[in-house]
């Protein structure tokens, strides 16, 4: 009704934060019970993908996993970092507020808080657990990270980076890659996180769906040999790369290959085919991004379909559906999601607090 009343599409950026964070949480919750099931088991339990309902816990709450928990950790860290400039009247994104050392320190603290949370019992990834324990021990983050890992834990949580007002493109990329690198030091984890954040930023600012993949490919090509040394420090050296540009280019090349797989799959789109079979299982960062993009695009934006298609998959269903939900929320805003889900969503107060801050 708001669209029919003539509200322009430019309204979307002002409401994107709430829409993204709700979409991420709803996708995470819908994929929670299907993550370790095969397609036959999922269909037997939940029916066909387009008939999936939002699962509820025994106490009637929409429960989420570590995907949403860690996204909130990133979001609340960034809210803390950007609060001081707002209070002092300086511009959002001021250099002194988002200096790499400060961002790293605050992210580290919030990750360690998540590590010890009593709610951290939702099958969290081992890489995140090991790296956060090393961060708690005070190791330099380049020593704490798991350099060989490019798991999707790097980019399942990156959405808030795209939502903070006033960041420059350099800051957005730097923070997106740093928050990934604290636990997942592989160059593909960094590139996929940067690209995931850029996808959300593009959609929140009105990018047409048929332009999304070309714009992401352009960003990847422009970023291919750009190593954000201020943010990543000695990571490339720690990884044994011949030089920083070669290190990061490897990650972007793998992401470009993943985008190509999405493009190829969409040439003959089949919403009823398992997206993991079409694009990738999603356990690793570039596949989580690619398969979520496919789930979002193959259903052409129908209200709940990106979540249902992402959750009804044979791979890392909660992460795929969480990212697909974030993309849908960026494109359509919070009114896209049913009020009855929001009213019983776990962490809804924390999500709405970030939405009010950034919207």
Distance between the termini: 21 Å
Biggest sheet, in brief? none
Task: Figure out the total of helices.
Answer: 18
CATH T-level topology: ADP-ribosylglycohydrolase fold
Describe the protein.
The protein has 359 residues and is mainly alpha-helical. The chain has one domain: ADP-ribosylglycohydrolase fold. Helix content is 60%, strand content 0%. The protein contains 18 helices and no strands. It has helices spanning 12-31, 39-46, 66-88, 100-115, 126-136, 141-144, 169-181, 187-204, 209-223, 229-232, 235-238, 244-267, 275-278, 285-298, 305-311, 317-332, 339-342, 348-358. α7 crosses α8. The longest helix has 24 residues, at 244-267. The model is unreliable at 1-12 and 85-95 (pLDDT under 50).
């Amino acid at each position: 009704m708001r669209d029919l009343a003539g509200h322009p599409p430019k309204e979307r950026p002002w409401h994107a934060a709430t829409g993204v964070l709700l979409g991420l949480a709803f996708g995470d919750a819908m994929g929670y019970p299907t993550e370790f099931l095969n397609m036959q088991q999922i269909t037997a339990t939940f029916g066909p993908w387009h008939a999936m309902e939002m699962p509820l816990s025994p106490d009637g709450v929409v429960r989420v996993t570590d995907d949403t928990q860690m996204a909130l950790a990133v979001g609340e860290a960034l809210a803390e970092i950007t609060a001081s400039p707002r209070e002092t009247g300086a511009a959002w994104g001021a250099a002194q507020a988002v200096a790499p050392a400060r961002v790293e320190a605050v992210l580290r603290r919030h990750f360690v808080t998540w590590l010890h949370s009593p709610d951290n019992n939702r099958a969290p990834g081992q890489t995140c657990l090991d790296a956060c324990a090393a961060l708690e021990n005070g190791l330099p983050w380049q020593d704490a990270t798991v350099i060989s890992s490019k798991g999707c834990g790097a980019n399942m949580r990156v959405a808030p980076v795209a939502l903070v007002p006033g960041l420059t493109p350099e800051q957005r990329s730097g923070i997106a890659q740093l928050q990934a690198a604290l636990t997942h030091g592989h160059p593909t984890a960094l590139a996929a996180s940067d690209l995931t954040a850029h996808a959300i930023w593009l959609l929140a600012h009105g990018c047409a769906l048929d332009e999304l993949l070309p714009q992401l490919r352009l960003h990847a090509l422009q970023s291919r040999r750009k190593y954000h040394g201020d943010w990543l420090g000695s990571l490339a050296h720690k990884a044994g790369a011949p030089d920083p540009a070669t290190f990061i280019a490897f990650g972007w090349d793998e992401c470009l290959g993943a985008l190509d797989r999405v493009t190829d799959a969409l040439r003959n789109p089949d919403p009823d085919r398992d997206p993991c079979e079409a694009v990738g299982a999603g356990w690793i960062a570039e596949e989580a991004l690619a398969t979520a993009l496919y789930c979002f695009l193959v259903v052409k934006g129908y209200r709940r379909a990106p979540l249902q298609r992402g959750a009804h998959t044979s791979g890392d269903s909660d992460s795929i559906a969480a990212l697909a939900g974030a993309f849908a929320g960026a494109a359509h805003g919070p009114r896209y999601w049913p009020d009855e889900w929001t009213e019983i969503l776990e962490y809804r107060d924390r999500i709405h607090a970030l939405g009010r801050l950034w919207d």
